[in-house]
Design goal:
This protein is mostly beta strands. 13% of the residues lie in helices and 40% in strands. The protein has two domains: 8-85, Elongation Factor Tu (Ef-tu), domain 3; 104-197, Elongation Factor Tu (Ef-tu), domain 3 (Beta Barrel).
Length: 199
């Protein structure tokens, strides 16, 4: 479980295809100390398990499912990634409940200023649009955000200067793909209502 509050940025050093899977080598520093084998770290919204601890970073194995659901199949060396360690018992929940399970890919339609922030415009895939509500939560490349407005399959998000400067969103360009995770509570509600309405 995560909060969507980014701790730091990492940089992809290498990506190695292994059949339908992929190994990543990511360079980063986190306040909690070096990465430990077996721990979970969200990489731009994708919950990944550390498979090897490296000097100033870690190695991760991405499954075929992860590559299908996210934009990680297009990763190239040098790409920056938003990083967050998994919550521990007693940690404050400062963003919203984020699982690190990407639901699909969205696209940047209007960028923001990398320092001042602004109104970020995103296009959502058709299958995720029903989960977007005004003032509701959405996770974009691992960042917990609040939807300010919705119009014809697009959502507008007001991004503050801190978020623009401290995450990859401040440098995202129009047309760029982003990992999306909708509010898990909305999915549970939909599932329970469907069970009651189905004969």
């Amino acid at each position: 479980m995560f909060t969507g509050l980014i701790e730091s940025l990492g940089q992809l050093q290498a990506a190695h295809k292994l059949g339908p899977e992929m190994d990543l080598e990511v360079r980063f520093e986190l306040a909690g100390g070096p990465a430990r084998v077996g721990e979970s770290i969200a990489l731009s919204g994708v919950c990944c398990t550390v498979t090897a601890a490296l000097e100033n970073g870690a190695q991760f194995r991405l499954s075929e499912e992860t590559l299908r659901r996210s934009w990680f199949g297009d990763l190239q060396a040098g790409r920056e990634l938003n990083l967050e360690r998994a919550l521990r018992a007693g940690d404050p929940l400062g963003g919203h409940m984020v699982q690190g399970h990407v639901d699909g890919i969205g696209w940047i339609r209007r960028e923001i200023d990398p320092q001042a922030g602004g109104e970020l415009l995103l296009e959502l895939p058709a299958e995720l649009q029903r989960y977007a509500v005004e003032k509701g939560s959405i996770t974009v490349d691992g960042v917990s955000l609040t939807i300010a407005a919705i119009d014809a399959g697009q959502v507008m998000i007001a991004v503050i200067p801190h978020t623009a400067a401290m995450t990859t969103l401040g440098r995202a360009e129009p047309g760029q793909a982003v990992n999306l995770e909708v509010d898990v509570l909305a999915k549970y509600v939909e599932r329970m209502l469907q069970a009651r309405l189905d004969p």
